[in-house]
Amino acid sequence: MTPPDSLSERLFNTLCSIPLIDPHTHINPLSPHCESLADILTYHYYTELVHSAGMPREVIEHPDLSAKEKLSRLIDFLDRIDNTIQHEWIMEMCREFFDFHEDTLTPENWESVYDSSEKKMASDSWETSVLETSGIEKVFLTNDFDDSLEGWDTQRYVPCLRCDDLVFHLTRPEVQGRLEHATNVRVKDVPTFSMAVASLFEHFTSHGAKACAVSLPPDFLPISQIPSDIDPLLQRLFIGKDLSEPEHRAVQQYVFWLLALSCQEYNLPFQLMIGVHRQVYRRGVYQGQDLFDQQTSLFQFRELFNAFPNVKFPISVLTSSQNQELVAYSWIFPNVYCFGHWWYSNVPTFIDRDERARLQAVPKTKQMGWYSDVYKLEFALPKCHMYRRVLANILAEDFVLARNWSEDRAIDLGKQILRTNVETVFDIR
Amino acid sequence: MTPPDSLSERLFNTLCSIPLIDPHTHINPLSPHCESLADILTYHYYTELVHSAGMPREVIEHPDLSAKEKLSRLIDFLDRIDNTIQHEWIMEMCREFFDFHEDTLTPENWESVYDSSEKKMASDSWETSVLETSGIEKVFLTNDFDDSLEGWDTQRYVPCLRCDDLVFHLTRPEVQGRLEHATNVRVKDVPTFSMAVASLFEHFTSHGAKACAVSLPPDFLPISQIPSDIDPLLQRLFIGKDLSEPEHRAVQQYVFWLLALSCQEYNLPFQLMIGVHRQVYRRGVYQGQDLFDQQTSLFQFRELFNAFPNVKFPISVLTSSQNQELVAYSWIFPNVYCFGHWWYSNVPTFIDRDERARLQAVPKTKQMGWYSDVYKLEFALPKCHMYRRVLANILAEDFVLARNWSEDRAIDLGKQILRTNVETVFDIR
Amino acid sequence: MTPPDSLSERLFNTLCSIPLIDPHTHINPLSPHCESLADILTYHYYTELVHSAGMPREVIEHPDLSAKEKLSRLIDFLDRIDNTIQHEWIMEMCREFFDFHEDTLTPENWESVYDSSEKKMASDSWETSVLETSGIEKVFLTNDFDDSLEGWDTQRYVPCLRCDDLVFHLTRPEVQGRLEHATNVRVKDVPTFSMAVASLFEHFTSHGAKACAVSLPPDFLPISQIPSDIDPLLQRLFIGKDLSEPEHRAVQQYVFWLLALSCQEYNLPFQLMIGVHRQVYRRGVYQGQDLFDQQTSLFQFRELFNAFPNVKFPISVLTSSQNQELVAYSWIFPNVYCFGHWWYSNVPTFIDRDERARLQAVPKTKQMGWYSDVYKLEFALPKCHMYRRVLANILAEDFVLARNWSEDRAIDLGKQILRTNVETVFDIR
């Protein structure tokens, strides 16, 4: 990352004044923010990094552990990861939210920050204050398919149907039960399953849902299955019988395709998060077990993109090496959109490389530069600042300096990919 | 891309004064330049980008559409792609050729540029003037195998045998007919096919051809097939019978290998453009349907490189992630050359990364930095300027500043990879 | 690479003052340094680059060729590779060791450098002087399994068991003979083979060995084989019978797994150098025949990493595109470490990209930034300087400037990954 100079700092400050819609998070709208510094430090990024740096899982995952005690144990290992950008997120939150300006949290200084955080976060105005400080107006959720979608302001917290359970865990009796309960459909075959899915889409769209989302393993191959081939498989599945591995795959492909069809019918964009293998490191901490296989290609998705020209596919890839595919596929396919910088690629140096290519080669209306992917509101601030800094540098170097653009024109481009496209693609008014 | 400073600007200007040979284009020597601004805007880069940005294909591909009306429709969508480097090419052409200095073409301002372009391009001196402004002396073509190669100055427009039809479309009766017509050989088996190919090479080399060229899909595996295994397949092919998929592949491999053998015999370099899948997006605009699968490797080509030590293989890869393979294979194999920056990698940020690695690790005699790949002469200017700017930056940063080279020495390196190696590798005198 | 400014130059100079342990080399402790300039120029980097640039192999590999004559022939082609960073290594050695300050070695000027080098290198103090100039205290070796490990100071030259022969060449009668001779075990099946391996580990650890190391092809799949399945295969192998390809693979997997088990038992880190195919270019110069297939993934190693939580795996990958996997796997797995910049990735532009990502996303205790991989001591200096320059730039840009770190804090991070982690991971006291 090129160091900020006065031009890129000026652009950064202007970018910060653009109010955002955060189009992909894991926020619980009934408990959207942290209760204390402990909640900040137990974000999986920190538990997995300190575990990787030598902290035994048991020491931080014991069920009887108090939040404060867990925090103190994490703090003990924090110096091992103080080089990481994730550590910088903590410090930026501490500076912005708690007016704390040391280089790092230590066993000596954390308790006062903890006390201060607990007090501030207990305030009724905290939630709104965090959103305002972060410059965020609306937040997309990723709701389980059986979420009631009630009890919160869906104008602020926009529902989004998370499809992972439907595609990958339909074997589980618990998931089958939840589906039946949520839809009042007794699923036993393809027709009843289709009815159930339609019922979910009715429920979600009538509650203001603006997207579906699913995360896919790197070897997932979306192809169309013939319903009559799948019917006997679903029949067996829903009376608790086992399927073979190829049968499982066929059911997953069928369900995925049906969801794409439903997105088309209900006019919902389908966010695809491509590339994650679950539970690769089996003894990892909670949410710290997933990795990837770089051997994957968007070429696997060509039939999907061809089959659904009217479904918008905002696509996240897990590795920077796959970014050039994302650039080329969204340059060619009208329904493919570049969507943020995900997980292992959400690091300044990868954002920098990936964003430069997108800005140089993909129509500016086809890219949404940022989403937070957070579980708690507080993290949107440092994550978005990280992105805005990289974006400001690129606008400065590749547009204002290299292409002689005015700063206003550069800011307009920044606004387009930060805000305008999110409104347009997800039909937010 | 690092912003230009005075050092890299100085280097850029000196690089611009080196007269070039453009070693890979799709120029039609009988109609080498555009007739108006409309021809510029209908380059497939623009039709595919505006289509990707929402323009229905029918609106710009209707056969009855006049060039001027088509242009006006493209202009309407141009603001959606004005961030792209391809848009910058248009504006650079407008500045250099038509003295037009607005930020972009709009529905309000394009007609005067159109009129001016039409007038200028009708001048008899236009062709030579474009070449001079671009600093280009000679231009390689990519001729169909049955091109007469007559009717133009082959010193300016150098013939090059394009082999795609022979390798991949030999099944088509139309291709078989053209082969017979071009060679006067009645092809029916391996011996007659070899005779026909020999006749093509005689024809091309006697007309001053300096290379063969072929584009290959990412899963192409060049291996040697035994002629007696292929003989019955060719016999069936040339009486219009079908082949199975593996038989097709074997024929393709046989033809490809025979072409490499012919390159060896006739002392022609074999340009390999590796990585393109054709018609991935089936409803895309003309020439806007091709994409790639990043899962490919030059390792697939090892037997070819081992088998033909005396054939020079200038190699283009489609993705920046494969560039490190190209660097390593041309560092090790004497007959493998780095060849330009192709298509989806012909974007400043990818050129920058790829060129740095080549300049740091591949013998300077083994790289040809640039070709235009254009259909009309006008595009060579902005494409070459884009490349020269990146190159000037790298020479400034990695050689003059980081390694304390004199500017003259840096320019000599630039000249070597821009001009000298093209002469040496393709035997141009 | 960003050009050095005064900040990064200051950081570079401070980094140079940190005494290093070089944790992976191919030094022969009984002949650790060059005898003259000829030894420098015959490093495989130079023979392969000039061969790639057109020098016939026979001209430089004739067995009767004197070192001086060979050198003079290499010099003739040196201008063809003077752009490469490997050429810069020569010039840096000439400057530092022989006070020679021309731009390059030429047919006119090399003899005086040769004479000067021969004289200097004959001095008794040369070895120590080179180590001091390079700032290196200790050097890891890669010893054949049947090395006596005697005759040198194992405090300076630390033994390390190189496992390639055991894993990949056990078929060779010569290797079987060496194993029997080294261990005094008559190997004929799994139990005796295990005894032999245990004896090797006893021998190595009792002589101060600090690691095992092996280089693996990109398609190697480390999985656990059942000893009773392998027993009959080893029985046949050790009476000189042939194995099928799948049987060979199973034996390789068994041996590799047994070595990992032994590393666990003897508490040795296991250095994995992942990605090299041997003898891809069959007519290449000595040590200049190996390449890679970018299609590979650390996902293949997941069972190994899960099975041996107590074995430390310092991992080198061959391509920069695989670096993001290395970053993610060492971010998640406590036993996976980022280990240097290997071979085709040991070039400033790749080091720069790879190191930025590691420093931004991997715990600072999980990375060892540098090893030399050299055959002669002299090369450690330019290789380490190359790395230190890149590191200094990154510390300047990404930490001091972008994150507002003090220079001292940045240097501490540099020291951690250059020195401290090598001590900790390899248990050097």
Can you characterise this structure?
Three copies of one chain form a homotrimer. The first copy, chain A, is α/β, with parallel strands linked by helices. Chain A folds into two domains: 36-121, Orthogonal Bundle (uronate isomerase, domain 2, chain A), CATH 1.10.2020; 145-425, Metal-dependent hydrolases (TIM Barrel). Helices cover 50% and strands 8% of the residues of chain A. The longest helix of chain A is centred in the middle third of the chain and has 22 residues, at 245-266. The A-B interface holds A 2, 295-299, 302, 305-306, 309, 321-322, 324-325, 327-334, 353, 356-357, 359-366, 396-399, 401-403, 405, 409, 413 and B 1-4, 48-54, 80-86, 88, 103, 277, 280-284, 288-295, 319-321, 344-345, 347-350, 353, 389.
Task: Produce a short descriptive summary.
Three copies of one chain form a homotrimer. The first copy, chain A, contains 18 helices and nine strands.
What's the layout of helices and strands?
Three copies of one chain form a homotrimer.
Chain A: H1 6-16, E1 20-22, H2 37-41, H3 44-52, H4 57-61, H5 67-77, H6 85-98, H7 110-121, H8 126-134, E2 136-140, E3 157-158, E4 161-162, H9 164-168, H10 173-183, H11 190-206, E5 212-216, H12 227-237, H13 245-266, E6 270-274, H14 302-307, E7 313-317, H15 323-332, E8 336-339, H16 348-361, E9 367-368, H17 380-401, H18 407-425
Parallel strand pairs in A: 1-2, 2-3, 4-5, 5-6, 6-7, 7-8, 8-9
